[in-house]
Amino acid sequence: MRKTIIAGNWKMYKTIAEAIELANGLKRELFKLNSQEIDIIICPAFTALTEVAEVIVDSNIQLGAQDIHWEDEGAFTGEVSALMLKDVGCKFVIIGHSERRQYFGETNESVNKKIKAALKHNLTPIVCVGETLQERESGETFKVLDDHIHNGLKDISDTDILKIVIAYEPVWAIGTGKTATSQQAEEAQKYIRDLLRKVYNNDIADLIRIQYGGSVKPENITELMSQPDVDGALVGGASLGVEIFTEIVKRASEVVK
Ligand code: PGA
Fold first, then answer.
1. Closest-lying ligand 1 atom to the alpha carbon of residue 238
2. Residue whose CA is closest, atom 2 of ligand 1?
3. Tens of pLDDT along 167-180?
4. Which of 61, 69, 131, 159 might form a disulfide with 141, Cβ 3.0–4.6 angstroms?
5. What is the pTM of this model?
């Protein structure tokens, strides 16, 4: 039985005041949900992490960041390290999001280094993998997933892989309003789990949580979550409002598998 995990990726949205308001609203609406049964995570921009951490302290909502650097400290202008994320109270960090791969030169090699840095400091990496529209249309979806999983997760031990969450995010479904059908999500996520069976073993593959991401909304969360290999969601646009994200989290928590 894998614990449901819903994460909101706020991307480059929300001033500090707006972030506090959103976090307060979510805390108020979601307090009844049992943190033993569902992980609820919000990932604000770096600038709002400290204030949001204060709002959600002692609540059932956990804090995540959207990126990380692999060194603990150094002359890396503009970067933020695992130590710094821990310092502000982060428990999770998104790594290898397609927007970082697409616009900021993120590669499997940098993803791999970032995962190792996060694990070294007990941050849970949410590792994003997924194909572009062109790759899907040219029949390369599984090849891309092979590449992201084999190279992104290179040399991660049996113990460490269990501390990782994977997010399958087909790039063509991100921010486009085009959700993958639940069958497409399941097909890709089953493929990822089967890859993990080969690289690790059945027990490990059965324990690893795989989220779906890409235009998740209240209207599609139940069907997505009903798929055997969909253990949660990474939500972008629909995580920016109290009502809509609350609805997604609540509906996800109601799906019984
Ligand atoms: P979206 O973004 O929900 O706005 O499609 C998902 C993501 O980028 O993680």
1. 3
2. 236
3. 999 999 998 888 88
4. 131
5. 0.97
